[in-house]
Design goal:
The structure is a single chain. The chain is about 20% helix and about 45% strand. By secondary structure, the protein is an alpha+beta fold. The chain folds into 2 domains: about 30-100, Ribbon (left handed beta-beta-3-solenoid); about 110-335, outer membrane lipoprotein receptor (LolB), chain A (Clam), CATH 2.50.20.20. The strands form 4 sheets. It has a 12-stranded mixed beta sheet with strand order 16-17-18-19-20-10-11-12-13-14-15-21, with helices on one face.
């Protein structure tokens, strides 16, 4: 009986604590507008603040000006948009996050299930047509180095003798533009790296599939989702906003590099934050993703910061993919 009483006391205390966190402040209005009064009678100013106004476990984000009033129907100083109620929006969708641990566990689990289901369905398609725009900003001391990349990837009939793919990459760094094209057809891999570097090699479709799918490691990323929000988009789409737990992610990516690009695993890197947005079609496939990665890289006692923004489009997922290949003439044959 004593154990039951103690358990009841702990649960009751936890409930009271959570409730006081949710209702630790109150909205107030005067002739100048709306403002928020915290439980200690103070009020936020010149700052963003997450507030769960209705106590549903999901908080919205508001910007308070230098006088403490929320901005409405305009842009905040950092360029973010707020709606007529003052809530931060992303392309018309009110952004939210869990306001207590219990709500966070529930929404994160739902987000994980939604992400993994979409990843399973998308990766199980016989073919995909993907385009991506990537912007990287490398910073070292006073040096800022922007890098822009555009990528196209098409493939069909993975892991079968009929497998084919085409990959095209364009990169612009300091005004220097490079392009690279690779493709696989009739059991042969072709690489055109420019400057007369054109090679071909015979590779089995099983090995080629492993390279295209990055060793089957990408789906594990869903296990690191955190701060999830699920919203309804246009035309029946589901939109999944998330950040990622960085703890353990470096080890995951090191295993990824060891498997796919062993030379990259020599660098010491720290992932500081990842923010992501995935648009999932009514059929359950990924249709768009936007991912921002903030990290630092240390090599030979020198540290460099990197911000990478990726916008990925999955064009007509579930539809047949056709590929037009470049000429296969003029390639030097090498041994795989």
């Amino acid at each position: 009986m004593k154990k039951i009483i103690k358990l009841f006391a702990v649960v009751s205390l936890l409930s009271i604590t959570m409730a006081s966190t949710i209702h630790a402040g109150v909205w107030k209005q005067d002739s100048h507008g709306w403002w928020w009064q915290d439980g200690d009678k103070s009020y936020p100013s010149s700052v963003w603040k997450w507030i769960d106004s209705d106590g549903d476990g999901m908080a919205e984000c508001y910007y308070f000006d230098e006088s403490g009033y929320i901005l409405t129907g305009t842009a905040a100083p950092d360029g973010s948009t707020v709606n007529e109620s003052g809530a931060w929006t992303d392309q018309g969708i009110v952004r939210q996050r869990a306001s207590n641990p219990a709500a966070a566990r529930i929404i994160n689990q739902k987000g994980l299930e939604l992400y993994q289901e979409a990843d399973l369905k998308s990766s199980g398609l016989p073919g995909l047509d993907i385009t991506a725009d990537i912007q990287m900003n490398l910073s070292y001391d006073w040096l800022e180095l922007p890098v822009y990349m555009n990528m196209l990837l098409k493939y069909h009939d993975l892991n079968t003798p009929n497998m084919e793919f085409l990959s095209q990459t364009k990169m612009d760094m300091l005004g220097i533009r490079n392009s690279e094209t690779s493709f696989y057809t009739n059991g042969c891999y072709y690489l055109d790296a420019g400057m007369y570097e054109k090679y071909k090699m015979n590779i089995g479709y099983e090995d080629m599939t492993r390279n295209i799918t990055l060793g089957g490691l990408t789906g594990q990323f869903g296990n690191f989702l955190d701060n999830v929000q699920i919203a309804d988009g246009d035309a029946g789409n589901k939109i999944l906003f998330y950040s990622s737990k960085t703890e353990g992610l470096e080890k995951h990516l090191t295993n990824f590099y060891d498997e796919i690009w062993p030379t990259l695993s020599d660098s010491n890197y720290k992932i500081n934050r990842i923010d992501g947005k995935a648009v999932i079609s009514p059929e359950g496939y990924f249709s768009k993703e936007a991912i921002s990665i903030y990290m630092t890289i240390t090599e030979e006692e020198e540290t460099m910061g990197m911000l990478m923004n990726m916008d990925i489009n999955y064009n007509n997922p579930g539809k047949a993919v056709s590929i037009e290949f470049p000429s296969t003439e003029g390639y030097e044959e090498v041994i795989y």
